[in-house]
Amino acid sequence: MSDQQIAGWGFEVSNIAIVGAGHVGVVYAAGLAELGHRVKVVDVNAKRLAMLRQGRIWFYEPGLPELLARGLARHRIEFSSSYATGLAKARFVFVCVPTPTTAEGNLDDSFLRSALTSILANTRAPWPVVVNKSTVPVGTGDVAARLFDGEDMHVVSNPEFLAEGRAVEDFFHPSRIVIGSRNRIAGEAVASLYAPLRVPVVHTDPVTAEFSKLAANAFLATKVSFANVLSRIGESVGADGDGLAKALSLDPRIGAGHLRAGLGFGGSCLPKDLAAIEQLARRYTESSALFAAVAGVNRAQRARVVELLLERFGALGDRRIALLGATFKANTDDLRESPALALANQLDELHAKVIVYDPVAAAQLRTVAPNLEVARSSLAAVRGADAAIVATEWPEFATLDLSEVRRAMRGSLLVDGRGIFDVESAHRAGLDYFSFSTAGVRPAETEERLQAVAVAS
Ligand code: UGA
Asked: Secondary structure of the chain in the HEC alphabet?
């Protein structure tokens, strides 16, 4: 965005420091720079910083390299490994550090605490406003504020709602901005940073803002599990999952997102935040059964595929199983909590020969799953395979010629774990097709079950 355009919005550009050059920090750095702000990013990882200075990003995020390049070319973004340098002159310090899950299912806020301590040690009056974007245990904002007791330093909770693979789009077109602050002026100052985005802003307290982030992810996880249970019922009664999802999605109270049935949800956010909210429900309500069931349904989706293969082959020893996709969803190279990778490892434990192809995650795969064979293309993966599984919905898989796939395979089973093909094309190619979202996959069996339902009623 040009300086003239920005001037037209009547908002002030600010000096912003961002702590953490991860999936969130880099997107916010490049996005805020595009809005006109001057951004300095602080991280302890010198290797990542060196890459970022050259405009190279250590993870895959469509559109982000171009956005970063624009910020660098306009001298609006700098990177530093020193808090003192990075925080000098900052009016706002965005905290974008990871909060992984502890063994008990809680969110681990140790990186956040250490970042806050460093911020306190490296800033002085006039104090910057600390803006927390990390997903944190509910109540953290108030705990953090107490760290700064005695100083006139405000901590504002401003959760991020960026989905990987579309984070740039989400930055510029968010559905809402949530600002949790005990101080009205600090909250409004943070909101004004985003003024050019012209989106609804929810002003609330830090606890509510933090809880709203957990709640949103837990709801999305629940929606995916709901869609997965419906697809299991649909499989038996002969309902078409895609048609069902469409019919539901047109109801504005339900909405279109996260209704795709398949291998289940993964990634660094939904499973983690679901576990955290389950902990809260266990602690503060009579039952955490809802969230436990959501997690259970999610695990069952993968188990269903294993079951299907066992039904088909008896045992999996020496069976070649091709897995198309390893990342937790398309358009990211993130393998964290990936349902695809978990399934690959489960099959490997059952002594299947698993060959994986992923368009962007091959290098990481060799490091995190050295037990799996990594192929260079979809066709190389399916060559000689007894079964092929679509485990991630990468767009390039949808363009595969299924007849060619069938000819390359030894067997004929295609498990479409992400619902990207249709049953007719798969059958035309001579494949036995299973999908979570398509009814009529096993016509004889479906017919039998329908008759049983008819007789029973
Ligand atoms: C999620 C939220 O969508 C973001 O709003 C949030 O900011 C982010 O977590 C976060 O906490 O930082 P993300 O983890 O990138 O974003 O991924 P999603 O797009 O939500 O997908 C999560 C999982 O659900 C994926 O494994 C995906 O394949 C699965 N999914 C999604 C389905 O199985 N079906 C669907 O219909 C949609």
From this structure: CCHHHHHHHCCCCCEEEEECCCHHHHHHHHHHHHCCCEEEEECCCHHHHHHHHCCCCCCCCCCHHHHHHHHHHCCCEEEECCHHHHHCCCCEEEECCCCCECCCCCECCHHHHHHHHHHHHCCCCCCCEEEECCCCCCCHHHHHHHHCCCCCCCEEECCCCCCCCCHHHHHHCCCCEEEECCCHHHHHHHHHHCHHHCCCEEEECHHHHHHHHHHHHHHHHHHHHHHHHHHHHHHHHCCCHHHHHHHHHCCCCCCCCCCCCCCCCCCCCHHHHHHHHHHHHHHHCCCCHHHHHHHHHHHHHHHHHHHHHHHHHCCCCCCEEEEECCCCCCCCCCCCCCHHHHHHHHHHHCCCEEEEECCCCHHHHHHHCCCCEECCCHHHHHCCCCEEEECCCCHHHHCCCHHHHHHHCCCCEEEECCCCCCHHHHHHCCCEEEECCCCCCCHHHHHHHHHHHHHHC
